[in-house]
Write a structure and sequence with these properties.
CATH architecture of the largest domain: 4-Layer Sandwich
GO molecular function, one term: hydrolase activity
Oligomer: single chain
Organism: Methyloprofundus sedimenti
Largest sheet: 8 strands, mixed
Pfam family, one: Metallophos
Shape: globular
Keywords: Signal
InterPro entries: Calcineurin-like_PHP, Metallo-depent_PP-like
Number of domains: 2
């Protein structure tokens, strides 16, 4: 090799090296600013009993660097959650536990997490918010949920409750394998005459080996994260798990993005994931081995306790022994968490009580039977309201007895239920006569809550009030449609 004894040559080489270093630094600078698809906070249970707040970000790319959260008081690093399938989820979900009452910024960005209050006053309730494939424009945000989210973001919110079912376009009811069509397991919804609610198999999952319809980030992006963007960072969320988030459907994504479990210190439950989903070429009849049930948990806020029940696998029309027994145990667990001193709301996707048409069978048979079999044979007296979704409408059911009122908020985007009995009527629901009010229009519910347990709610469609609800209406109809 020729020696560099010429000053000009040495200067030229040094200039090239310096230029290369600058280019490298520029490349690193770009790499340090990954695309952030979403940022949000959620409440989750802790080992101590106090609620945890997780701040999560969804970053483009697998194994992306997780950002740091910053405030005037401190910097908080975020760490990656376990990715269940990097081929179908080419994103990194990062999380950290954050304190109450502190505004945090994602370092190097203008993205801010709103300060989280322990005493929620303004509560927003939405549910069943995606759009079915036939109603969606491919690659675009789900509507009308996107517009509802824009409108809802104009309302004050300290807490957002989502009743479940986020991803419809990615969760069709059946799949084809070798030219034959098979119903995907849906806890009985896809087999309404099967008294065993698909538990005897064969088990078909869109996430099984051989499936071309596995749960995918793009479906989650378009059905939930993009349309929900105006709301995502405005307040902490509680994400109920719907039947569209079963492991046979969009369960992998729900556990990755929205699940209450975490591997961070202090979490009451680890990050959960779906078990093996089998092989379409050899469908299994041991269905229970492919299911995942989230244990019930409590969130103790000031003046209000939320009890969260994963009812995704609770069959609407029948009460098969295996799942009914499991839900009986979970209801006993919830009862042990509840005290007469703390006002509680029960949050669960499938309603304990709901009806589509007057005079027809009411849902949910599994939950009703499990409750009847529980130690107390009824919900704890501290439970003053049950919030659900599942049925694509808004409905309130008010009972004359100690049974708490039930609200169904399942009208936030997906195609609405057809041929339902609308208006106000009475019907026998689980052996009790109920005042029922049903509205089949798109919307969301805003609730103003007081620490004495009283509350006032308004069902809105973004332009007008559809109904008003009030705890003081008891024992009459808790909600009434606007004239």
């Amino acid at each position: 090799m020729e020696h560099l004894n010429n000053k000009t040559s040495r200067t030229a080489i040094l200039s090239l090296i310096f230029s290369a270093l600058l280019t490298g630094c520029s490349t690193l600078s770009v790499a340090e600013k990954p695309t952030i698809h979403a940022a949000y906070t959620l409440f989750a249970p802790s080992q101590s009993g106090d609620p945890l707040i997780y701040a999560r970000t969804v970053i483009d790319g697998v194994n992306a660097d997780c950002p740091t959260l910053s405030s005037e008081q401190e910097s908080i690093p975020t760490t990656p959650r376990h990715n269940p399938d990097s081929n179908h989820f080419p994103v990194t979900v990062c999380e950290a536990i954050i304190p109450f009452n502190r505004t945090l910024t994602i370092l190097g960005t203008n993205i801010k997490f709103a300060a989280v209050k322990r005493s929620p006053v303004n509560i927003l309730v939405i549910g069943d918010s995606g759009c079915k494939k036939k109603d969606c424009t491919k690659g675009e945000s789900a509507q009308p949920f996107g517009q509802l989210a824009i409108d809802a973001a104009k309302q004050p919110a300290d807490l957002i409750l989502h009743m479940g079912d986020y991803n419809y376009r990615g969760t069709q009811g059946s799949l084809k394998f070798k030219g034959k069509k098979h119903p995907i397991y849906d806890a009985g919804d896809n087999s309404p005459t099967d008294s065993q609610c698909e538990l005897e198999g064969p088990y078909y999952s869109q996430n099984a080996l051989g499936s071309s319809k596995a749960d995918h980030w793009k479906k989650w992006r378009d059905d939930f994260f993009r349309p929900a963007e105006p709301l995502l960072m405005s307040a902490p969320w509680v994400f109920a798990r719907g039947n569209h988030e079963l492991c046979s459907r969009a369960g992998p994504g729900w556990f990755y993005f929205l699940g209450p479990g975490s591997n961070l210190n202090g979490a009451a439950m680890p990050q959960l994931s779906c078990p093996d989903q089998g092989d379409l070429a050899k469908p299994d009849r041991n269905v229970l081995s492919h299911l995942k049930f989230v244990e019930p948990y409590q969130l103790k806020l000031t003046g209000l306790q939320l009890l969260v029940l994963d009812s995704a696998n609770a069959c609407d029309g029948y009460d098969p022994q295996e799942t009914t027994t499991l839900y009986t145990r979970q209801l006993d667990q919830l009862a042990a968490m509840s005290t007469n001193q703390t006002i509680s709301w029960l949050v669960t996707h499938r309603p304990f009580w709901g009806i589509k048409n007057k005079g027809k069978q009411a849902v949910n048979v599994t939950l009703q039977k499990a409750l009847a079999n529980s130690k107390n044979t009824a919900l704890p007296s501290a439970v003053k309201l049950v919030l659900s979704g599942h049925k694509h409408l808004f409905q309130s059911l008010t009972f004359p007895s100690q049974r708490p009122p039930q609200l169904l908020v399942g009208n936030s985007g997906v195609a609405l239920t057809s041929h339902a009995t609308e208006g106000s009527f009475k019907d026998l629901i689980d052996d009790q006569l109920a005042n029922i009010d049903t509205i089949v229009q798109f919307g969301y519910l805003t609730i103003s809550y007081k620490t004495d347990g009283s509350w006032h709610g308004v069902l809105r469609d973004g332009t007008k009030k559809l109904a008003t609800c009030n705890s003081s209406n008891l024992p009459g109809s808790i909600c009434q449609a606007e004239p």
